[in-house]
Amino acid sequence: KSSFPDYGKKEEEYADQEYAMMLMTWSAEVIKYCFHIKSLPIFVSDWTGQYNHKHIPSGRLENIVCNSKLAEQFITEIRAKDPRYDLMPVNCSDSCDCATGDTTSCACAKTEFYQATKKARINSKGFFITCIGVGAAGVDGLNIPLTDYERQIPNLVSCTDDCNCGRKCLQNMTHGCRCIQAMVNMPGCGWDMRAGEDIPRGVFISSMAGENVLISEEGTRDDRMFYIRDKPIDNISYTADRVKNDFCYNNHSCGPTLLTALVYHERDPLLPRPAHITRQFTPAGCSLTWDYYPPHVKVPFDCGCGFSFCRK
């Protein structure tokens, strides 16, 4: 509560009954589509009573990944030309200890995928390696910019229900967030996701729901918002315009608390899914933020992180 000025001293008054019903409906959808009950955002009212912006973004609220028709056709053609792009099932062995956070013996954390592009980290056999565990992600310390390694967007292979490690495995990112989050309506900033409890470093927060689209489709949609371009297929981009989840409510900061990684949930070497993992210990009440763009990319938006190294 110390992080929230005047928290509890003022009551929120909805401008009309319609907005109240929209909020209730949207909250129910969050419960329906989240994998784990703790990923339910706690709605905290605007405690200043001065910010009247009430906005729920457009699009379907679902925790899924889908493909546009053109992207689906393109991906099918790629797989037909090169069978090495087919799914590669990998399961943890009986001796895997990743359920305790030790990923040194985790088959999923060491998975190799064929990669044809030159941008990936490729070994002598022509494979790139996703060889870091979730617990190894991030840095020690608070409020520092992303390191050069973190900006490379690490690759992670998620354990699944088919593995022997179970639901407590830190490498298993199919069950959703294991920590409490709070959704706050910040004056002048819109929605903001905050930690509802102390969250250790290296904890999976959310994976981005969205749609794979062809780059050529960008100019055909007026509601295009943002892309994740670091994909194995250069002609495919990823957007949350029409399908989204709580991933989209994590705001920007030049000293982010979250690290963006590409997670291979379904062992698909073509279509990894962007995910957020805590890169440092995050106290309760702290904003869950990520760095939208690398420093050399100039994007016209105002940053309010307030750090001395803020890129504005």
Automatic annotation (TrEMBL):
This is SET domain-containing protein. GO terms for molecular function: double-stranded DNA binding; histone methyltransferase activity. InterPro entries: H3K9_HMTase_SUVAR3-9, SET_dom, SET_dom_sf. Gene3D superfamilies: SET domain. It comes from the Eukaryota. Residues 190-292 form the SET domain.
